[in-house]
Design a protein that fits this description.
Blueprint lengths: L1 H9 L4 H8 L6 H8 L6 E4 L5 E4 L1 H6 L1 H5 L7 H7 L2 H5 L3 H18 L4 H13 L1 H7 L9 E8 L3 E11 L5 E6 L5 H15 L23
Antiparallel strand pairs: 1-2, 1-5, 3-4, 4-5
Length: 220
């Protein structure tokens, strides 16, 4: 599929491609209601550039370090490569960054005329030597399911499964979960309790005694 996308993109850009280049997928209200209707599972809506377009309360709490960093723009690739907090947050930081590059390369093959995607890749190549090296390896990765190991500043280490369900216009719903009767499930419950009671100006407690930026809860 990736080779097909590359071959299609190599040809002249027809009107349909130009139209798609200018399109900006919008998260439908029904999709927003779905992720908000899963209060016990962190859930997100992402596009192919790895922008987080919507998230429920537990999702924002899980990725609090990303939302706390004003330079990320709620983009998980930018967070992984440019935020110092990412190296602590992602236990498997190298694997996460390789996967992020692979996802962006698939997106570039599908729509090389996406100006926002080109700008993101250019920014990462300029600001991150690691990204520039990985981008040159030409790896691709289709984001569907897997496991994430995180070190959260509030609840500590946890391992979560994630599933990605594709929507139209390159959007996907990503949901994290933990097997029942596990430490990870207990950790998500603790995180939900913290998210429900945290004030807007509450600092994130740090499990490793490093300073964190304040997190402000956002309403969807």
């Amino acid at each position: 599929m990736h080779l097909y996308d590359l071959a299609r993109a190599a040809g002249p850009a027809p009107g349909a491609q130009a139209k798609r280049r200018e399109s900006r997928p919008v998260v439908r209200p029904g999709v927003t209601r779905i992720i908000e209707g899963m209060p016990h599972l962190p859930a997100f809506v992402k596009n192919e550039r790895l922008d987080t377009l919507a998230a429920n309360a537990l999702g924002r709490a899980l990725f609090a370090p990303m939302y706390a960093d004003p330079t990320t723009g709620a983009n998980s690739a930018r967070f992984a490569f440019l935020s110092p907090a990412a190296r602590t947050f992602y236990t498997d930081w190298e694997r996460v960054t390789h996967e992020s590059v692979g996802v962006l390369r698939v997106a570039a093959g599908k729509n090389p005329y996406d100006r926002n995607l080109s700008n993101l890749i250019g920014e990462l190549c300029t600001r991150s030597d690691t990204f520039r090296t990985m981008w040159g390896s030409h790896d691709v990765h289709v984001f569907r399911e897997g496991t994430k190991r995180l070190r959260h500043p509030v609840i500590g280490d946890l391992e979560l499964d994630h599933e990605s369900m594709q929507l139209e216009d390159g959007l996907s719903v990503v949901v994290y979960s933990a097997p029942p009767n596990t430490a990870a499930e207990d950790a998500l419950k603790l995180l939900a309790s913290w998210s429900a009671t945290a004030d807007q100006d509450t600092d994130i407690p740090s499990t490793n005694r490093t300073e964190c930026l304040p997190v402000r809860r956002r309403e969807v």
